[in-house]
What does this fold into?
Amino acid sequence: MTKNRKAQCKRSTKETKIEVVLNIDGRGEASASTGIPFFDHMLEQLGKHARFDLSIKAEGDLEVDLHHTVEDVGIAIGEVLKESLGDKTGVCRFASAIVPLDEARVEVALDLSGRPFLVYEVDPIAEWIGTFDPQLCEEFWRALVVAAGITLHIRNEAGKNGHHIIEASFKAVAVALRDAVRIDGKAVPSTKGKL
It folds into this structure.
């Protein structure tokens, strides 16, 4: 196993201050404090089901909009994920998952490719969930994949309840990440020799 697959970052702008600590080979101990309760719940699902130890603390200009905080948290998580994976020696690389939550069902496929690309096929959810705007999920995932350099496809195959669809999305990404980062060899999984 690649040793010490851990990273942390502090990101500070005029709009947000964010600290993220990640241990890929953790036990799923996750905590998030962003000032957006539903978003915190989703971030904790991400860490828990990926079995990452993940700590997120964020302060943002929520009085302006949630967008800056959600997007910048995505960037910060992507940065620590990329750093903690190093050269990706031995990782499985590809993974997929289908996760149900009651009537909702979400399919995810991802590749630790080094090439950022997002396909987000989730039916628009009009209603806010608590204080959270569901449209920001796509911005979060885009920010994360660009910073991490991964390809991610998310598609909701069924569902009516916005909370269920979004939560199934976060859990499905988590399960796929858990499988993709798993060590299953001693080489970089690419014919190019580099990801």
In short: The radius of gyration is 16 Å. The longest helix spans residues 67-85. The mean pLDDT is 96.
